[in-house]
Amino acid sequence: MRFAMRLPRVYPLIPAALGIGALYLVVGAPLSGTGMNRDGAIVTRSIRTDQHIDLPLDPTHADAPKPVGSIAPVRIATREGANDALKGLTAGIAPLDVVAFGQRPDLVWDQASRTLTERDDVIAYEVTAEDLPAAADRLALTRGLAALAPQGEQAVRLQPDIRAFKAGQRLTVQVPDVLGRTAIVFVVSGDGTLQFLYPGRTDPATVPTADLSFAVDVSAPYGADQIVALTATGDSGDLVTALRRLDRRKAAGGALGLIEAAPKGSLKLGSVRILTQP
Question: Fewest C-beta atoms under 10 Å: which of 133, 160, 243, 245?
Answer without folding.
Answer: 160
